[in-house]
Amino acid sequence: MSHHTVHPSALAVRGAGYEVDGAKLIADVDLDVAPGEFVGVIGPNGAGKSTLLRTVHRVLRPTAGTVRIDGDDLWALPPRALARRMAAVLQENVAEFDLTVEEVVAMGRSPHKRLFSADNDDDRRLVMTSLELVGAAHLGPRGYPSLSGGEKQRVLLARALTQEPALLVLDEPTNHLDIAHQMEVLSVVRRLGTSVLAVLHDLNLAALYCDRLYVLAEGRVAASGTPAEVLTPGLLADVYHVRADVEVHPLTGAPNVVLLPPE
Ligand SMILES: Nc1ncnc2c1ncn2[C@@H]1O[C@H](COP(=O)(O)OP(=O)(O)OP(=O)(O)O)[C@@H](O)[C@H]1O
């Protein structure tokens, strides 16, 4: 008998491609998220980051390759079973629900419930805990459409948290947030210990919070590794066409990118 326990990747993307109208939006993408790992996807505008996340969240069916979650093919899982394992906050901001914040967040419980069953005390507690985690408990009774962009973003994250997923898929989870809420939201997600795949534009935030990074450029993985391995002046010049100085910050231990004006 083997004493090795096999831990399948929380997420395993193999040779994934998505082609539409003859354009390859992503191609040959291999990507893993280990259980509990916080993995970032970075890269310039139009590189294919959102397309990749949509294939991972089964919004798009890849035209090549496979996506597996805990070893199971994404497309072989019934939608509700998938929703119990994976939650996402993607870019296309869901139609403006005419609901209260609490009702929007409670929607995250639906994959765990039978059709039309009422919310129980556990559900209500989870909704409140999730809202507290993202610093939005005070918004509970408000109408969702009346929230600011940053408030909506935190509420949608709370909804994803009530889904209690093993894997969180986040497309620019901090783009509407002020600096304090950026740190708060990423710290909360980090502390959950959930596996995370997140598109981040801010390289220094990515360096602070991610275990590993994948750099997408023109639909392909241009580099991957720890933030220190990936965030080099050479890569930033190649992929983003910027001049940058990178040093490990003495207080954070993370690489810190300083952009330099063009020469
Ligand atoms: N139907 C289509 N035909 C051709 N190209 C498309 C089509 N749909 C999207 N694209 C292009 O695919 C590329 C990848 O888009 P995607 O949204 O995945 O990029 P991204 O890395 O998330 O960019 P950003 O940082 O700007 O959000 C873009 O250049 C986009 O214009």
UniProtKB/TrEMBL annotation:
Record-level Gene Ontology MF annotations: ATP binding; ATP hydrolysis activity
Q: Is Nucleotide-binding one of the keywords UniProt gives this record?
A: yes
Enumerate the spans annotated as ABC transporter domain: 6-243
Entries under SUPFAM superfamilies matching the protein: P-loop containing nucleoside triphosphate hydrolases (SSF52540)
The alphabetical list of record keywords is: ATP-binding, Nucleotide-binding, Transport
Name of the protein in its database record = Iron complex transport system ATP-binding protein
